[in-house]
Amino acid sequence: MQPASSSSRSTSLKRGIGRAFTYATVGAWSLFTVFFVVWIVIASLKKTRDLFSEPWSLPLKPVWGNYVKTWVSSHFGDYFLNSLWVVSISVCMLLVVCVPAAYVLARARFRGREALANFFILGMGVPIPLLFVPLVVIMTTLRMGDSLSGLSVVYVALSVPFTIYVLMGFFASLPGEIESAAIIDGCSDFQTFWHVMMPLAMPGIATVAILNFVGLWNEYQLSLVLINSPENRTLSLGIYSLISSMQYSGGDWPGLFAGITIVMVPTIIMFVAMSERMISGITMGGVK
């Protein structure tokens, strides 16, 4: 009995060490990230000379004018509204298209279902840069180039594979007995989906909504390729234009950090407000 007991203690010790190392690594990375987020916010409230002379100190008198200047003079207010419009419309369109599609692919039984599901999954492996030229040609032909509506359509098209793939896992994890009970009670296929299964999958739907919102909010490459007019720029392009202008107009670093803070705030609010629902959604999607 002693060898078995010794082996069990050794295994428990190894698991404990591995768990402690994982927690320490995640904790250190979290502290590192939080530190630099806080530092960016502090730096955005300083004057340029104070930022370089005392980079790690708190501002004696916060310069809120950096945000006003960035929002108005650098047109970040317009960029913010552009990003908010494009991302909100894209996420709503994605949910309208992908939620019922994922439900059918996960729960229905028909010939070619697996092939169709694999077709969407294969779309996740296509490198986005390979699509730049075809996208420009297609959007120009449709007269949707250099427009926020055209950018939104592209966002939706390229986000469909990931969204359907993730939602399929959530719908597949729901108990089949609930669906059967709804059918026995006289619900049609649409009523079963709309009134029974979709409410149960709301944590998963919220999860993909958050992931898509954050990903599209920070998207840069497609915006750079498809948007040319300054009035149609998104926040990511606004940051790039602000950095480019600093090469010729001097280094307004506090203004740049103010712009970065403006970009970060919506995603931070989204995660804080929806973190519990997102965690429950991820947990639900991982249980089959």
From TrEMBL:
InterPro entries in UniProt: BP-dep_ABC_trans_perm, MetI-like, MetI-like_sf
Database matches in Gene3D superfamilies: MetI-like (1.10.3720.10)
Keyword rRNA-binding on entry: no
Topology of this chain in the membrane: Multi-pass membrane protein
Source taxon at top rank: Bacteria
ABC transmembrane type-1 domain boundaries: 80-274
Membrane-spanning ranges: 21-42, 84-105, 117-140, 152-172, 193-217, 253-274
Keywords, ordered alphabetically: Cell membrane, Membrane, Transmembrane, Transmembrane helix, Transport
Keyword Transit peptide recorded: no
Chief place where the protein resides: membrane
GO CC entries: plasma membrane
A Gene Ontology biological process term: transmembrane transport
Compartments, record wording: Cell membrane
Family indicated by similarity: Belongs to the binding-protein-dependent transport system permease family.
Protein name, UniProt field: Carbohydrate ABC transporter permease
Source organism of this protein record: Rhodoferax aquaticus
